[in-house]
Amino acid sequence: MTSNIPTVNFLQIINTHAVWKNILNEMLANELRIKINLDPDHLKKDNLCHFGQLIQVNPHRFSALPAFVGVRSLHKNFHGISSEIVRLYQDGQHTKATELLNGRFELVSRNLKSKLILLSQEYVAAAGSL
Fold first, then answer.
1. Within 10 Å of residue 58's Cβ, how many Cβ atoms?
2. CA-to-CA distance for 34 and 55, rounded, in angstroms?
3. What is the pLDDT of residue 4?
4. Domain limits, the chain
């Protein structure tokens, strides 16, 4: 029997968020090589990335999974910290931006990755039990 729950590419979601450390490092080193929207107000909106949109459009897919609450909170925090790093950089506060990137951002990013892995396992198990 085949489940009607759509496949979610959690590896892509994890990798997309992991790339942000590189992007922010490049920005802080004034070596940003890609064109990307670095508007702090835009970055703060955790519902604009692929994962955020997936959650917004289909919250019922995830809400019953135990890891979801933690992921949702970490995801929001991840976007908030990213936004703050960009804002600090744009305000000329490069040292504070770097400290935030290598401190809280790093911690939240690692925790988000591990919680996304857990969420992916729960998602696949739930899909398989239908």
1. 13
2. 27
3. 61
4. 37-128
